[in-house]
Amino acid sequence: MSEIIDRFTRIRWLVGGDGFEKLQKAKVLVCGVGGVGGVCVDALARSGIGEIVIIDKDTFDITNQNRQIYSEAVGAVKVDEFAKIYPNIKALKELITPKFIENFDFSKFDVVVDAIDDMAAKIALANAAPKKIIASMGGAKRIDASQVKVASVWQTYNDPLARKYRSELKRSGFQGDFEVVFSTELPQCKELGSFMGVTAVFGLNLASLTVKKILA
pTM score > 0.90 for this model? Predict the structure, then answer.
């Protein structure tokens, strides 16, 4: 049988036929397609994930262009731009709130990626899909990509958002454990300044965690 040469040849070489079949059968939910989530989605779509559902209500604005892929389409709905490019992506233009999460069916997904900023929604998401979730902590205000790390949600440090996240998780009664992407670099500014060299590394780490979770 001749070797298949297509857009997924290199990932097939990496994970093998059985591994690639797992990726093709997988269903992944990505919540938020900004600077972090957008890069994660792009990497997953290029890696042969069978179905990726993405949720975000935002449109691209000019300030997104320093870090968000496909943001050249200023004024366009973010999720729609991704769906135009990749046939394995399904776009949902929705505001992710605790109420939305309460009424959403997470059962069909193998992995749930949290790349949103709203704290109440992040806590609700962790409680709704405790066995499936991986999450991004604070990617803004940092410039040193070498300090981006992966750890248990309970073992992060130097990240104010992660500290508040842990506190709110405990308050909600959450007792599970899952991996998060965070930075050990202390925030460099008060405003939400951002650098794609850092936010993209956050997104790529989320994509890597997703693939490893599916293959495992």
Answer: yes
Q: Nearest-CA neighbor of 212 among 9, 38, 47?
A: 47
Question: Tens digit of pLDDT per residue, the chain (216 long)?
Answer: 467 899 999 999 999 999 999 999 999 999 999 999 999 999 999 999 999 999 999 999 999 999 999 999 999 999 999 999 999 999 999 999 999 999 999 999 999 999 999 999 999 999 999 999 999 999 999 999 999 999 999 999 999 999 999 999 999 999 999 999 999 999 999 998 999 999 999 999 999 999 999 999
Number of other CB atoms surrounding residue 7 within 10 Å: 9
What range does the domain containing 200 cover?
A: 9-215
29: tokens are 């939910």
**Cβ contacts of residue 33 below 8 Å, gap of 6+?**
41, 54, 56, 78, 79, 82, 115
* 123 vs 137: CA distance, rounded Å: 12
Q: How many domains does the chain have?
A: 1
